[in-house]
Write a structure and sequence with these properties.
The protein has 317 residues and is α/β, with parallel strands linked by helices. It has three domains: 110 residues, D-Maltodextrin-Binding Protein, domain 2 (3-Layer(aba) Sandwich), CATH 3.40.190; 101 residues, D-Maltodextrin-Binding Protein, domain 2; 66 residues, 2-Layer Sandwich (Alpha-Beta Plaits). The chain has eleven helices and 15 strands. The strands form three sheets. It has a six-stranded mixed sheet. The longest helix is centred in the C-terminal third of the chain and has 19 residues. The radius of gyration is 25 Å and the shape is globular. The relative contact order is 0.14. It binds adenosine-5'-triphosphate and 1-O-pyrophosphono-5-O-phosphono-alpha-D-ribofuranose.
Length: 317
């Protein structure tokens, strides 16, 4: 096999960065499969050539993807909004968020031991030690807080709050005596509660996003970037919506259409029996149970809910 890390192996290929492990990895693989991006990743190799498009997938740490995309080393990337923000303002400005992907949802929060009697709010943490893997965002957050509290005089760049960088297992920092509080990601809150911590402030909410360079590289294949973006948008839309169909009598049609207006408009087809119509409409998956309840109460019959394998829809999702 030729060495995929030689530049000539990648020549003419659009480069697409995918998190190499962690929380976003499996979801990204599902997304690539849904978009029919076919590849085989050789054991221990962080580059994979796509078989059915001139694309190479580059598996990188999620934290490095914003910089690689922003600086034009790769054309497209998937990472968390938190990672884009943590990469700093210079990098964030070089990156365009193309699509929110609806997975990897979490919040970056300030947490302290529940048992702490002296630290009940973020203000109480000012001047104390905070452990985090998000030292840029945490530093900015406490700098703003100190400024708001009038605790930092202008020109004084030294933070009173001490931000300690730790690479992982941040939630152990308080128990180990390394810090008085932490700034870390929370989704279900299970890790936080298991460690006897509770949240006292939120820095940001995050989800996985598809990003591209704000100023694409001269070699970038814009048509292919747009095609892949559009396919991924289709996969995401298909996971957000279901197709609901039902039969309804003429006199109850209007009321039922108000329940399922569809995205542009619902499709209404007359049945052979002139008293009845068949209706088809896209409905948000998260709303579908309530929508079916309402349809049934409004006289709709034969209600069917169908999964979408893929779709192409205009406008915001
Ligand atoms: N508990 C969570 N729930 C949802 N999304 C999360 C969660 N933790 C992290 N994420 C998202 O996934 C991204 C990658 O996080 P992850 O912890 O997998 O990082 P990693 O450093 O690549 O992996 P590892 O922690 O295994 O070293 C984060 O930047 C965030 O956007
Ligand atoms: O609120 P929860 O659902 O419990 O999720 C939060 C945990 O998820 C992330 O870590 P992850 O498990 O990805 O591993 P890490 O600690 O090695 O980064 C994060 O750093 C928390 O530890």
């Amino acid at each position: 096999m030729s060495n995929l890390l030689q530049p000539e192996a990648l020549e003419g290929r659009m480069l697409f960065a995918i998190p190499k492990k962690g929380r976003l990895y499996e979801k990204c693989l599902e997304l690539l499969q849904g978009a029919d991006i076919q590849f085989k990743r050789a054991h221990r190799l962080d580059v994979a050539l796509v078989q059915n498009h001139p694309i190479a997938l580059v598996f990188l740490p999620a934290a490095d993807i914003p910089r690689f995309v922003g600086e034009g080393n790769v054309d497209l990337g998937i990472t968390g909004q938190d990672m884009v923000a943590e990469a700093g303002e210079t990098v964030s400005k070089l990156v365009t968020e193309e699509l929110q992907l609806g997975f990897g949802k979490c919040k970056l929060q300030v947490q302290v031991p529940e048992s702490s009697t002296s630290i009940k709010s973020v203000e109480d943490l000012v001047g104390k030690k905070v452990a985090t893997s998000f030292d840029y965002l945490a530093g900015k957050y406490f700098a703003d807080l100190e400024a708001k509290l009038g605790k930092s005089s202008s020109g004084q760049s030294e933070l009173q709050t001490k931000i300690e960088y730790v690479g992982g297992s941040v939630e152990a920092a308080c128990a180990l005596g390394l810090a008085d509080g932490i700034v870390d990601l929370v989704e279900s809150g299970e890790t936080m509660r298991a460690c006897g911590l509770h949240e006292i402030g939120t820095l940001l909410s995050s989800q996985a996003v598809l990003i591209k360079s704000a100023a694409p590289h001269a070699r970038s294949n814009t048509a292919l970037i747009n095609l892949i973006t559009s396919r991924i948008r289709g996969v995401i839309a298909a996971s957000r919506y279901v197709l609901v169909t039902y039969n309804v009598k003429n006199e109850q049609l209007e009321e039922n259409l108000r329940i399922t207006p569809g995205r542009r408009a619902a499709t209404v087809m007359p049945l052979d029996d002139k008293l009845w119509n068949a209706v088809q409409a896209m409905v948000l998956r998260s709303d579908v149970a309530v929508v079916c309840d309402k349809l049934e109460s409004a006289g709709a019959q034969d209600i069917l809910v169908m999964q979408l394998a893929n779709c192409r829809i205009e406008g915001s999702m």
